[in-house]
Amino acid sequence: MEEKKDPFTQLMFGSHRKSKEQEKQTKEDFSPGTDWNQLINQIQEIAASIQSLKPLIKEFSPLLDLFQKKNK
Q1: DSSP string of 4-72?
Q2: Do residues 18 and 2 make contact, with C-beta atoms less than 8 angstroms apart?
Q3: Distance of CA 22 to the CA centre of its chain
Q4: Is residue 27 included in any domain, yes or no?
Q5: pTM of the shown model
């Protein structure tokens, strides 16, 4: 039997019980088919690509600044 709470307490703290749908959704979020090693490797590759593009972006920044000034 669920204990009745005043509306303020329910608004501020909500219900402490999870519905069956919420529990099912939480279980589906962490599917066993996720390859975490592959995901981490892809993130590392993206970070390395960004690091290698930084010098190129610095080279083109004066040109980009020129375009910004012309558009204003």
Answers
A1: P--HHHHHHH--SSPPHHHHHHHHHHS-TT--HHHHHHHHHHHHHHHHHHHHHHHHHHHHHHHHHHHH-
A2: no
A3: 20
A4: no
A5: 0.41
Provide the domain count of the chain.
Answer: 1
Domain encompassing residue 49: 36-72
State residue 7's pLDDT score.
79
Tokens (6 digits) for 38? 């592959």
Instruction: Indicate the SS3 state at residue 3.
Output: coil
According to DSSP, residue 18 is labeled P
2 Cβ contact list (under 8 Å, min separation 6): 17
| Tokens matching residue 25 | 């959704």
